[in-house]
Specification:
Elements: E1 2-7, H1 21-30, E2 33-38, H2 45-55, E3 59-63, H3 71-76, H4 79-85, E4 91-100, H5 108-125, E5 129-134, H6 137-146, E6 152-154, H7 161-169, E7 173-176, H8 186-192, E8 200-202, H9 224-235, H10 239-255
Parallel strand pairs: 1-2, 2-3, 3-4, 4-5, 5-6, 6-7, 7-8
Helix pairs in contact: 4-5, 5-6, 9-10
Length: 257
């Protein structure tokens, strides 16, 4: 069994399913996926995600604003509004938030402030924060430490061991996407070897970053076992063992208070 801890359910390419998300989720369940966390990138995403989660017992979602959104969108994510939106039991996390200087270097101060507010809200509601970082690893760690954040996921991990160790020391979990399966990602697999098994998570980040052998195609939750396959080779475990370990880890993360 597998958990897709990070999938953009409102963005999937549903043409193969005649536009029906239910069919895409059913295909993923047939592949062994037992839980899905739909991720918000904008504060209004919670409306559609809440409707999906209400229909599917195995779907939860996050609330938050991605760092690549504009300054006005980030400003809307006040601590008070995030806390209010996170009250539902189907809201499993805050985010995705974080820092991205690769795509969006214009609003660095706003990104940092928004990131801090997500952490503050996550501490109030006692739910994890989902963190995105790109070309901003040092500032990302600085914000996590400054806000004394101990309950979170560094998602779609592509950084070095120094970064991994810093967030692990804060109490975070590290989630790997299909990138870890790419032939060019040996350095990332070398970092993954050092991540403790009890802090390991898997995700698709669908519709992006489809794992091998589907690289270059639209990603979807049913491909998360292929991320587990890449990590099974790293850890010398079976795919099923990686699935069980990461599923247990996700449950542990959600149950932290």
């Amino acid at each position: 069994m597998f958990v897709d801890t990070h999938c953009h359910l409102t963005m999937l390419d549903l043409k193969p399913y005649q536009g029906d998300l239910d069919q895409a989720l059913a295909q993923a369940r047939q592949a062994g996926v037992v839980k899905f966390m739909g991720i918000s990138v904008d504060l209004d995403d919670h409306i559609q995600l809440a409707a999906i989660a209400a229909k599917h017992a195995d779907v939860g979602y996050s609330v938050g604003v991605h760092p690549c959104e504009n300054a006005d969108s980030m400003a809307r994510a006040t601590v008070e509004d995030l806390v209010a939106l996170a009250q539902s039991d189907k809201v499993w996390a805050l985010g995705e938030t974080g820092l991205d200087y690769y795509h969006s270097s214009e609003f660095i101060a706003e990104q940092k402030q928004c990131f801090a507010r997500h952490i503050q809200a996550s501490k109030i509601v006692k739910k994890p924060v989902v963190v995105h970082t790109r070309s901003a690893k040092h500032d990302t760690i600085d914000v996590i430490k400054a806000e004394q954040s101990t309950h979170g996921i560094l998602h779609c991990f592509t950084e070095d061991w120094e970064t991994a160790k810093a967030v692990l020391d804060c109490g975070y979990y590290i989630s790997f996407s299909g990138i870890v399966s790419f032939k060019s990602a040996q350095a990332l697999r070398d970092v993954a070897k050092q991540v403790p098994l009890d802090r390991l998570l898997i995700e698709t980040d669908s519709p992006y970053l489809a794992p091998m052998p589907y690289r270059g195609k639209s990603n979807e939750p049913k491909y998360v076992p292929f991320v587990a396959k890449a990590l099974s080779d790293v850890y010398h475990k079976t795919v099923e063992e990686i699935g069980m370990i990461t599923t247990r880890n996700f449950e542990n993360l959600l149950n932290l208070k």
